[in-house]
Amino acid sequence: MVRVIMLSPPGAGKGTHGKWLTSQTGAAHISAGDILRAEVARGSDVGREVAAYTARGDLVPDDLIFRILAPAVVAAARDTGGYVLDGFPRTMPQALRAAEFGHDVGLASNAVIYLTAPEEELVSRLLDRAERDGRDDDSLAVIRHRLAVFAKETAPLVDYYRSRGILLELSTDRPEEEVQADLRDWLESRGLLPVTTNHVAPADAEPNHAAGVATTSTLPRDDQPANLA
Ligand code: ADP
Questions:
Q1: Is 192 touching ligand 1 by the criterion CB < 6 Å?
Q2: Is the CB of 28 under 6 A from ligand 1?
Q3: In angstroms, rounded to a whole number, what is the distance separating the alpha carbons of residues 152 and 175?
Q4: Low-confidence ranges of the chain (pLDDT < 70)
Q5: Which tens digits make up the pLDDT trace of 87-139?
């Protein structure tokens, strides 16, 4: 079963593709941002504690996010056999602590999906989302700040996971079906999804979805996920 981390700058599609992965695998989708927004909306103690950070586009403290997410991950894995973690970990201390915790409880991550898109595309997607969903951290100034926070705090995780051989880098600057076809192929190749002989392609999809793929599966397949994280 997949125990996957979605790693991407704001707007690159970790929510969209994370939900799709859940639909394909049955592993629970756990969105750090959704959980925090729900706490803020409820006006809980945690919500009051994190509201100022999320509104500014700053990361909430590592301890707090870990306290909230660790039980959610354990529960998800118990209920569904895996997890799709959207938005966590996001700092090196979070990643190291998550790896230690995952190792201790036998729930180490076995895949990290790193989604990319050009910065101006990210900004324009987030501004569109602001019109649809009215998220208060989707203003231009806060979007720019969140992108800067990603570059400083989260981007270092890419090399960390790449060196563990569990990272797939995918451009999302192309149709969703192409991204998902590549995701499926990679997960199948790692034994994380049952191999389908007959992919259901949308009616208007190109027959050869692999054209123009910008993927980097960084280590050979025989790198053992069991040794990871
Ligand atoms: P996006 O990736 O679009 O910026 P998310 O919904 O994933 O949005 O996160 C929204 C906000 O929640 C972040 O800007 C941050 O304030 C907080 N947050 C989410 N995940 C984490 C995390 N792992 N660590 C610290 N803060 C987080």
A1: no
A2: no
A3: 28
A4: 197-229
A5: 999 999 999 999 999 999 999 999 999 999 999 999 999 999 999 998 989 99
Model pLDDT, residue 177: 97
| Beta carbons within 8 Å of 169's beta carbon, 6+ residues apart | 114, 116, 158, 214, 215, 216, 218
* pTM score of the predicted model: 0.87
Q: Which atom of ligand 1 is nearest to the CA of 8?
A: 2
- Predicted confidence at residue 199, as pLDDT, reads 55
CA of 197 to the centre of ligand 1 (A): 37
Alpha carbon distance 214, 211 (integer Å)? 9
Q: What is the pLDDT of residue 188?
A: 96
Reference 2, options 109, 160, 78; nearest CA is: 109
Strands 83-86 and 28-31, bridge-based pairing: parallel
Tell me, using a 6 A CB cutoff, whether residue 32 lines ligand 1.
Answer: yes
Tokens of 129: 């989302």
For atom 5 of ligand 1, which residue has the closest CA? 33
Question: Which helix H or strand E contains 84, and what residues bound it?
Answer: strand 83-86
Asked if residue 146 has its Cβ within 6 Å of ligand 1, the reply is: yes
Reported as type and span, the H/E element at residue 97 is helix 92-105
pLDDT at 195: 87
Pick from 137, 138, 142, 150 the residue to mutate for probing ligand 1's pocket: most ligand atoms within 8 Å of its CB: 137
> Cα separation of 151 and 147, whole Å?
6
User: Which regions of 83-195 does DSSP assign to beta strands (E)?
Assistant: 83-86, 111-116, 167-171
